[in-house]
Design brief:
single chain, alpha/beta, 8-stranded mixed sheet, 3-stranded antiparallel sheet, 15 helices
């Protein structure tokens, strides 16, 4: 039986052209985030299964690649449930591993702790454009900062990074889970049904107000409550300032400090931004993770047609590990989608070193070969990227392949010429 040369479904081989873009993005991301005081960390790709299935990860918990116990601990024949044969899983995001990491190492970390983490995650999802079963995530998080300075810094760091990568005209959409809950409470929806209301609300951009109304009624919600709920969104569409509008309409249901804090984030970011983008208050923004407790945000780039990053505040998550809550907030760039957009736009890495190929005729050896390699070493010392390779029989095709990889200059070395 022949071995399969194709990667596993939902995963991909990365060719040199894309790898160069990825390496460039990683370099810019780390450099920019470092200037904002974020420190690189790393966590294992495997996590304890109970950490991954603690009802914090929303639908992602249904997509875990689970890992069987090993050796004597694995007894499939006697197992009655999956839990008896599984003890780990591949991480589906970087937030759960970060919180475990912080809970385990907090005594050795500064407060607030500003973490940068980049690494692969795995989800048994249905592959599509920009979505894979193995993909890199790029997260920054601030733990130990309760004020909205955390949100301001996270948004500025992320947008500065996107600006350095050449993106402009994108949107940062922002909302607060407390606003979502207050709107549901104002409309008379029972608290135990709020998650179902938000699941329907999250479809607003696809099915519109009429679609949301129809689905809420189909799900058994009373028409009076649905009408009151959608009246808020119709009013928002006409309001000059959505945050101020909701502050007034939800008086007595929503603490004004929530909307005041949100408006301060929006105003502060707009006043100090260095990239070209818009801050947009979006009261339909939900975010799928149930661990969010306050502010939530997403990156929208029109060329992609879907979110290319997001995050929010998750003040209760550390407490699930330690028993003591620690304020926490994070922002994740959709690394794979950013790379895809750069590739599709024909992005060229700026300030690339000159790429030179030294092609040596077969048969060149001894001191002549050393002389060629010495020339290459000198060129490398001067900043060039130099490939030293034997000349193929089909030299024309070899050059075409190298030109496709960005080599602009070719130097050919022949045995007879080197003798002279």
């Amino acid at each position: 039986m022949a071995l399969s040369k194709k990667p596993v479904t939902g995963m991909k081989d990365i060719l040199p052209e894309e790898m160069q873009i990825r390496d460039y993005c990683i370099r810019v991301i780390k450099e920019t985030y470092g200037k904002f005081g974020f420190t690189s960390i790393e966590t294992p790709c495997m996590e304890h299964i109970e950490n991954l299935t603690n009802k914090q990860g929303g639908d992602n918990e249904k997509l875990i690649f689970k890992i069987l116990k090993r050796g004597e601990k694995l007894n499939v024949a006697q197992a009655a449930t999956e839990e008896e044969v599984v003890d780990g899983g591949l991480r589906y995001d970087l937030t759960v591993p970060l919180v475990r990491y912080y809970s385990n190492n907090a005594a050795q970390l500064p407060s607030p702790f500003k973490a940068l983490q980049m690494g692969n995650v795995w989800r048994a999802d249905r592959p599509q454009r920009g979505r894979y079963r193995q993909f890199m995530q790029c997260d920054i998080d601030i733990l130990g900062e309760a004020s909205n300075l955390a949100e301001i810094e996270l948004i500025l760091a992320t947008t500065t990074t996107l600006g350095r990568l050449g993106f402009k005209g994108f949107e940062i959409r922002i909302n607060d889970r407390q606003i979502l809950k207050a709107m549901a409470a104002y409309s008379g929806f029972p608290e135990e049904s709020w998650d179902n209301v938000f699941i329907t609300l999250d479809k607003m951009d696809k099915i519109g107000l009429d679609g949301v109304e129809a689905e809420l009624l189909e799900n058994g919600f009373e028409k009076a409550g649905v009408d009151k709920y959608l009246e808020l969104y119709r009013g928002l569409a006409e309001a000059d300032n959505g945050v101020a509008y909701l502050t007034e309409r939800l008086e007595g249901v929503l603490d004004a400090s929530v909307t005041d804090g949100l408006q301060e984030i929006i105003d502060s970011v707009q006043a100090t931004r260095t990239a070209e983008f818009k801050m947009v208050f979006d009261a339909t923004l939900v975010r799928g993770m149930s661990y969010y407790t306050g502010t939530i945000f997403e990156i929208a780039i029109s060329e992609f047609g879907a979110a290319v990053g997001g995050g929010g505040r998750y003040d209760k998550m550390v407490g699930k590990f330690t028993g003591n809550d620690v304020p926490a907030c994070g922002f994740s760039i959709g690394f794979e989608r950013i790379v895809l957009l750069l590739l599709e736009s024909g992005f060229q890495i700026p300030d690339k070193p000159k790429k030179v190929a030294y092609l040596i005729e077969k048969g060149v050896g001894g001191q002549s070969l050393c002389d060629v390699i010495a020339k290459a070493q000198e060129a490398r010392k001067n900043g060039d990227q130099v490939l030293v390779a034997r000349m193929n029989k089909n030299k024309k095709f070899q050059k075409e392949q190298l030109m496709a990889e960005g080599y602009q200059e070719f130097v050919e070395f022949y045995k007879e010429a080197l003798k002279n």
